[in-house]
Specification:
The chain has a single domain, classed as Vaccinia Virus protein VP39 (Rossmann fold, 3-Layer(aba) Sandwich), CATH 3.40.50. Helices cover 30% and strands 29% of the residues. It is built from 8 helices and 14 strands. The strands form 4 sheets. The protein has a 7-stranded mixed beta sheet with strand order 3-2-1-4-5-14-8, with helices on both faces. α6 packs across α8. The longest helix is centred in the N-terminal third of the chain and has 20 residues. The radius of gyration is 17 Å and the shape is globular. The protein binds S-adenosylmethionine. The site of S-adenosylmethionine has 18 residues, from α1 and α4.
């Protein structure tokens, strides 16, 4: 099966999840509309000085994080493969009167020749696993970023996948699962989705090879989302998992700068 067919499978799967996610406590759209941020402590502590800067959010889902960066003064563009998600994001931009652009595109097909490159490229939690080719992904990141610009990602740690029974190392053929979604109201939604494993070294090296200088790589024993079975909230908003009595790495983040 070609990657285009897998992307189409994923688009259909993500389209089918959007309305359920929109209505969920997990995403708390009402709280967002009331003024809460959807951003979590890790990215808020690590991606600073966004105000007045042009920010590209890759795989923005229905735009809560994009719009939360916009509320902090960033001039945002969000991109996602799901037209249902992008429509919801545009509706939220209208409802909140935030001047934010949302584009429906597979990120591998995303190109902006009509605007200056972005000052920040951002992506978060559950994004990299939908991308088969990290070399191509890193080229998209760097081609959309101005020289000296900031790349920031915060992502679920691939060691979690290994301990959950999936590959740690990359494989040519993706894993295809039929699964419920992760929001508390998602037990009736079943989507067929294809994911690709990427070890931490492959992510870091793909960025280095396109001229992104890694300034900080962090690993966390907690997730800001209660999204995996067995998680325990030890401190407010920090969900831990243990393996044989030890904390598992659940999240990593990477801050880099385009040097070349
Ligand atoms: C888990 S969500 C993004 C996470 C985000 N932190 C959130 O929860 O709002 C993953 C997103 O990636 C998008 N996606 C998957 N494959 C994509 C691709 N090839 N190009 C663009 N977007 C893609 C999906 O439509 C989905 O909205």
């Amino acid at each position: 099966m070609s990657n285009d067919k897998y992307f189409e499978m994923n688009r259909v799967g993500w389209d089918s999840r959007v309305n359920t996610h929109f209505d969920s406590k997990f995403y708390d759209v009402d709280g967002f509309l009331a003024g809460n941020t959807s951003l979590r402590e890790i990215e808020l502590a690590e991606l600073l000085n966004v105000s007045g800067r042009r920010l590209l959010h890759l795989q923005c889902h229905f735009g809560l994080d994009t719009l939360s960066w916009a509320r902090k003064g960033a001039i945002c563009t969000g991109v996602d493969i799901s037209p249902v998600a992008i429509q919801k994001a545009r509706d939220l931009a209208t409802a909140t009167k935030l001047d934010t652009e949302f584009i429906c595109s597979d990120i591998y097909g995303f190109e902006r020749n009509d605007v200056e490159p972005f000052e920040i490229v951002f992506m978060s939690y559950g994004a990299i696993c939908w991308l088969p080719d990290l070399k191509k992904w890193a080229e998209i990141v760097t081609s959309n970023l101005e020289k000296g610009g900031t790349f920031y990602m915060v992502e679920f740690h691939p060691v979690y996948d290994l301990l959950a029974g999936y590959s740690y190392f990359s494989q040519d053929v993706p894993t295809v699962d039929e699964e419920n979604t992760y929001t508390e109201n998602g037990t009736d939604i079943v989507a067929k989705l294809a994911t690709w494993a990427h070890p931490l070294s492959s992510v870091v090296n793909a960025l280095i090879e396109v001229g992104i200088q890694v300034e900080k790589l962090s690993e966390y024993p907690y997730s800001p989302y209660n999204c995996f079975e067995g998680m325990v909230e030890r401190e407010p908003g920090r969900y831990y998992l243990t393996h044989r009595g030890h904390d598992m790495p659940i999240v990593y983040s990477l801050l880099g700068r385009k040097t070349a």
